[in-house]
Amino acid sequence: MCTVCGCHQDHKHGHDHRRDDGHGSDVHFGQGEAGTTVPGMSQTRLIQLETDILAKNRSYADRNRTLLAEQGVAALNLVSSPGSGKTALLVETLKRIGGAFPAAVIEGDQQTSNDADRIRATGAPAIQVNTGKGCHLDAHMVGHALHKLPLEEGGILFIENVGNLVCPSGFDLGETARVVILSVTEGEDKPLKYPDIFAGSDLLILNKTDLLPHLDFCVGTAVGNARRINPRIQVLQVSARTGQGLDGWLDWLDSLRAEGAQVIRPGTRT
Ligand SMILES: Nc1nc2c(ncn2[C@@H]2O[C@H](COP(=O)(O)OP(=O)(O)O)[C@@H](O)[C@H]2O)c(=O)[nH]1
Ligand SMILES: [Mg+2]
Known about the structure:
There is one protein chain. Helices cover 33% and strands 15% of the residues. It has a seven-stranded parallel β-sheet with strand order 3-2-4-1-5-6-7, with helices on both faces. Helix 1 packs parallel to helix 4 (139-146). The chain is of the alpha/beta class and 270 residues long. The chain has helices at 43-71, 86-97, 114-120, 139-146, 190-193, 195-199, 219-229, 246-259, and strands at residues 74-80, 103-109, 126-130, 156-160, 177-183, 203-207, 234-237. The chain folds into two domains: 1-41, no CATH class; 59-259, P-loop containing nucleotide triphosphate hydrolases (Rossmann fold).
């Protein structure tokens, strides 16, 4: 085994990692134990680093989970690519909730407070968390924001993660449920290309269904791909633009609130 990258293939350091799978010119990284490569770092070191970071994150996530459970608040971690409609969906959701139950929002982006401003315009309390070069929220950041928000019993905390289908998947925020949003303009194959984020989510929202007549996107194929990765995943089809399907989403939120903010790890709700 290569001691630099941990790859099980017999190759010289510095060579591309190639797999003999009939696509001889394809290049595959991430087949060592760590599932990723960093130039100059061994797989063992990578695993150690990841384990340390995720263990620390997990302890902050557990704190968040306990705080939320004590306060009777259910928290949602909304993950997706940039532009799939997370903020648009939240704005429409908050308008429809209309104060019927308490709702608050944490907005994650690398820069700007644009999204928090869009949320505040609905009257809901929102905190923007800017991550700088960071590509995802972590539980420590969310813990800071939690203390700045009014969290009321029976309420929902919506956490809009940084737009990215990769990095947020590894970071438990202490949420009650994880919701992945895929818009129909992104293609049916995204669950297969970015499996971790779909594997760790409880609900898939297919957004922008108003655009379906203009696209060759096949809903059945997209849902089938998501269920190949995660057979338990629930699916809702919505349009944040027209409001189509939002009643089903609001019902889903009601049942989440009815369950209360239980101490559940992401991706393990039944
Ligand atoms: N046609 C259509 N456009 C949408 C829908 N939802 C969001 N958008 C548009 O998609 C763009 C990105 O939305 P935004 O909420 O900022 O995405 P985010 O980056 O995931 O928060 C904006 O121009 C929205 O108006 C939808 O359901 N239908
Ligand atoms: Mg947004």
